[in-house]
Amino acid sequence: MAEPRLPGRLRALTPARLQLGRAGCGLPTSELLAFQLDHARARDAVQMPFVPAGLAKAICREVIEVRSQASDRAEYLRRPDLGRQLAAEDAVRLQPHEADLAIVIVDGLSAHAVHAHAASLVLELTDRLDNWKLAPIVTVRQGRVAIGDAIGERLGADLVCVLIGERPGLSAADSLGAYLTWNPVVGRRDSERNCISNIRPPHGLSYAAAADAIARLLRAARHRRLTGISLKDGIGVLPSHEP
Hints:
Strand order of the largest sheet: 1-3-2-4-5-6
Helix content: 25-40%
CATH architecture: 3-Layer(aba) Sandwich
Shape: globular
CATH topology: Rossmann fold
Number of domains: 1
CATH class: Alpha Beta
């Protein structure tokens, strides 16, 4: 049996739009409709409201719900700075816990990703951190990555892990990202974080693989007391167990 032609083989390996064909000067109708559907899904993901109510039951842990200073979705999209700041009335609800780790679940630009993947990833991750002291899990509406710094600082955690819905693309409207920061305080730079992205089985990183990578980075961060560009991941680079 002859092997499939190269274009067909490439399309089987990636969700990227390759070799779409053409009808006259335009795309075939099926490809145009598929593009419009994916575009609509991406737009819907950005606008979807975050509903954190079911997370506490799903992960069997205490969950504290807070908001950023963005009053609604429209302001959140216009003012990224407000999404990085914790609402003053909610900040007082976060008390120090002297924890090793704070897990913060943020809607970001895709609440759909958080609804689909956050609880399963948290369960996988906490299974790998048996001896760690965990702060109550915090969920954030209208949040950006950096809001985890304010939350981690309020909770007194050594590390913060922000799980956030990533910016939707035309092939992925439900991608979850994880951002890790040592000694979280307001004003941390993005270069002081480590990121694991595209967590969205079966088309992206699996929960188990993502939890392995996050746990490996967390252990190394605690051992070296840093995160960011000075902390590299990879086989043989970071320890696979507690130092």
